[in-house]
Design goal:
Elements (H helix, E strand, L loop, with lengths): L15 E14 L3 E8 L2 E8 L12 H11 L6 E10 L8 E12 L13 H6 L1 H4 L3 H23 L3 E2 L5 E2 L11 E3 L5 E4 L4 H9 L4 E9 L12 E10 L4 H31 L12 E3 H10 L13 H15 L3 E5 L21 E6 L2 E8 L4 H10 L8 H4 L9 E7 H9 L20
Parallel strand pairs: 3-5, 6-10, 12-13
Antiparallel strand pairs: 1-2, 1-4, 2-3, 4-5, 7-9, 8-9, 10-11, 11-16, 13-14, 14-15, 15-16
Length: 446
């Protein structure tokens, strides 16, 4: 039996016997010739068969040819099959410059003739039938981009001697606060919680002497939001490093990391992204612009928008306004917003002794926040006082505070949402489009 050839390999093969496997995308059943567009995980190819129809005068005909023609006529979109045939290079064929004359056709699994979704189906309908929605070339590319992006992140870190960790997602107590927690029954009448982030455990790695770590893993938020950028389960990209002087060390690492990853995506997928998404991948120059929060609010106000939030932070429209300013002023898609007030930051963010503001930042990409980063407070007595200020009971944080009672280096890190980055990189309107299987307040299947 001829070994399977991927569609992407056909152009480099010589004319002759070939075997391809995939699913039926379209069938054009003409009187004298039949065309099938077969797609696999790497592309699509045209299959052709000279049709043999039953003779009107009852003349005997090739039974095998009649059977093949009949089988092609009955093919439904989505049917998975293998075709053995003859590869022929022909520059007149618009689809890849090659076609395959069908010899034999082996159906692996026939599809129902009526497909439940169409190109114009709503996003919710498409999510109901996600396994069919993902067959599109455009959606296939999303996850190839994701793979390249993650590989570039890992390569950057590993080449710089970072350690990859896998922190637990079942926790005995909240990872950051008592809000947005999923709880579940555990053994011996215990209650467990799904981790909101690996925050405490990546800090533990610094106390353990790991120096530099990263993790790409699930995180969970019991947040009933129905926005385009929130999910109840998402992939979090986290890094933490020791012996830093300030959050600036973290920011410099992250901007280099993103520059590296965007370059990898552009090199491998840039042309196809432009073709299918109409988006040019822009590799960001470093350093990224940095704007203190107070200054950012003034810039937004000068552009005619009054931020309605009372906590001093930017709201989504404020983020879009400051991003527009940065694009106009610096020609940049990214901006670090720095110097947040402690009231709107986690208790473990270190504070500047002179200003009282936190040594932290948010990173905006195309007007959407994708990251929070900071230097952490590593002095246990200060941590306890800052926790109390936030209304947290230090006794409930004992397991975390214990990390710092036996020595800790100055350290900091960031957490970044993978889906948000992909959504913004590809110009999509919702993280649902770039998430393999989305989970939200009303979606637990498929």
């Amino acid at each position: 039996m001829t070994e399977r050839t991927l569609v992407s390999q056909l152009l480099s093969r010589e004319d002759g016997p070939v075997s391809v496997s995939g699913w039926v995308e379209t069938v054009r059943d003409q009187k004298k010739v039949q065309f099938v567009i077969l797609r696999d995980e790497t592309g699509a190819v045209q299959l052709v068969n000279p049709a043999t129809r039953p003779a009107e005068d009852g003349t005997d005909q090739d039974a095998a040819a009649l059977a093949l023609t009949s089988a092609i006529s009955e093919l439904a979109t989505g049917t998975f099959l293998t075709v053995h045939g003859e590869l022929k290079h022909d520059e007149r064929v618009k689809l890849g410059g090659v076609e395959i004359k069908i010899g034999t056709l082996d159906i692996a699994a026939a599809a129902n003739p009526e497909t439940p979704i169409a190109a114009d189906s709503s996003v919710d309908k498409r999510m109901d039938w996600r396994f069919l929605d993902l067959r599109q070339r455009r959606n296939n590319l999303i996850f190839r981009v994701q793979t390249t992006f993650e590989h570039a992140l890992r390569t950057y870190w590993i080449e710089r001697d970072y350690i990859e960790v896998h922190s637990p997602k079942l926790m005995a107590s909240p990872s950051e606060s008592n809000a947005e927690l999923f709880s579940l029954e555990y053994f011996n009448d215990q209650t467990a919680y799904l981790a909101q982030s690996p925050q405490f455990f990546k800090q533990m790695a610094q106390v353990a002497g790991f120096g530099k770590i990263f993790e790409i893993a699930p995180a969970f938020r019991a947040d009933p939001s129905f926005t385009s950028r929130h999910a109840t389960e998402f992939t979090s990209i986290d890094a933490e490093i020791s012996w830093i002087d300030s959050h600036e060390d973290v920011a410099r690492m992250q901007e280099e990391l993103l520059q590296t990853a965007f370059q990898a995506v552009k090199d491998k997928h840039g042309a196809e992204i432009e073709e299918l998404f109409g988006v040019e991948v822009r590799v960001p120059a470093v350093p990224f612009p940095r704007i203190p929060l107070a200054e950012a609010r003034e810039i937004v106000k000068s552009r005619g928008y009054d931020i309605p939030r009372t906590d001093g932070d930017l709201d989504p429209e404020g983020e879009r306004q400051i991003a527009a300013y940065v694009e106009e002023t610096y020609g940049h898609q990214f901006v670090f917003i720095t110097d947040y007030h402690p009231e709107i930051r986690a208790f473990y963010h270190m504070r500047d002794e002179e200003t009282g503001l936190t040594k932290s930042y948010d990173l905006l990409f195309n007007g959407v926040e994708i990251t929070t980063g900071a230097q952490r407070e590593h002095r246990v007595d200060v941590l306890i006082e800052q926790a109390k200020e936030k209304g947290l009971d230090p006794e409930h944080l004992d397991f975390y505070l214990d990390f710092f009672r036996f020595g800790a280096p100055p350290h900091g890190g960031f957490g970044m949402g993978l889906a948000r980055v992909l959504m913004l990189l590809l110009g999509e309107s919702s993280i649902r489009e770039v998430t393999y299987l989305f989970r939200g307040p009303t979606r637990l299947a498929p």
